[in-house]
Amino acid sequence: MTKDEITTLLDGILDKKLGNLDIPSANDWARIENKFGCQFPTEFRFFIELMSEYSFPGDILNVSNGKTNGNDTIEFTYDYEMKQGRWEEELIPFYSIGNGDYFCLLSSECPDTEVYYYSHEENGIEREADNFEEWLNQLPTFLS
After folding, report:
1. Which among 77, 79, 70 has a CA at the least distance from the CA of 102?
2. Tens of pLDDT along 37-63?
């Protein structure tokens, strides 16, 4: 899925944000990929970059350390959940639902990772999509 295709999808389901936010820099991406020992899917990178332009329900976690939407970073959230003692080391959270649940990628599967849903109450994960493109295509249904 190209960046333009993702933009078209998001245009159909989300409102544009007011104000200019920073997209992750090459150094931001290198830092986070180094932390998790994986290369993120291209569609994931496009999606995160496009989140600087859209209002999204819940909290899309940030990669950039610049001017952001005010949500926590992926790294901060991961480190926080690891300290709580119930987080699986390979889970990379990217979308906080707001109740302790997250959509996640799995570092051991990168760059062809499936998308998972982590349930805080059940302390377990379920596969949500075979890949990030499939997860993106499910967004209109999920957000309606």
Report:
1. 77
2. 999 999 999 999 998 888 888 899 999
